[in-house]
């Protein structure tokens, strides 16, 4: 029983493995708990291991590569057409195994730990910017009026309101523009 290709359906605590030989015949169908997986994979001869790409898949891919396995990650929507019957974890593992053997399959490169860290920082920043914009857009009636002026967006509107309030302290628009530093020179 020489396993050449493994389809691995990963989850939080239980993993399902489906393995085939060089002729595409099933030679392995197994369920493992998280703490058993790495030890089990270390005992297998090097082979091709396929998974659907996700944050956790990159971690497992790096670990399996260190054990000498060739790891292939695929976008989940490329695997879906290969699910033959009702969706369950074994059928998903079989579909992954089937999909990775297609000659035209597209793969996702395995990310390094540093790449995942930087990607997380960018996603956190994006979420913070969206949250800030959401808050600014609902914050105050004066901000909403300022936002309607051409060239002023939500961030500038809230900054103007924070600095000058409703601008009632200024005699006219000319005094306000001078206060801002907008002078003819």
Topology:
Blueprint: E1 5-9, E2 14-20, E3 26-33, H1 34-43, E4 48-52, H2 55-66, E5 70-74, H3 76-79, H4 89-100, H5 113-139, H6 141-147, H7 154-164, H8 173-180
Parallel strand pairs: 1-4, 4-5
Antiparallel strand pairs: 1-2, 2-3
Helix pairs in contact: 6-7
Key terms for this structure?
185 residues; alpha/beta; 8 helices; rod-shaped
Textual characterization of the structure:
It is a single chain. This protein is of the alpha/beta class. It is built from eight helices and five strands, in the order βββαβαβαααααα. It has two domains: 5-100, ATPase, nucleotide binding domain (Nucleotidyltransferase, domain 5, 2-Layer Sandwich); 113-180. The protein has helices at residues 34-43, 55-66, 76-79, 89-100, 113-139, 141-147, 154-164, 173-180; strands at residues 5-9, 14-20, 26-33, 48-52, 70-74. A five-stranded mixed β-sheet has the order 3-2-1-4-5. A hairpin with a 4-residue loop joins β1 and β2. 24% of the residues are buried.
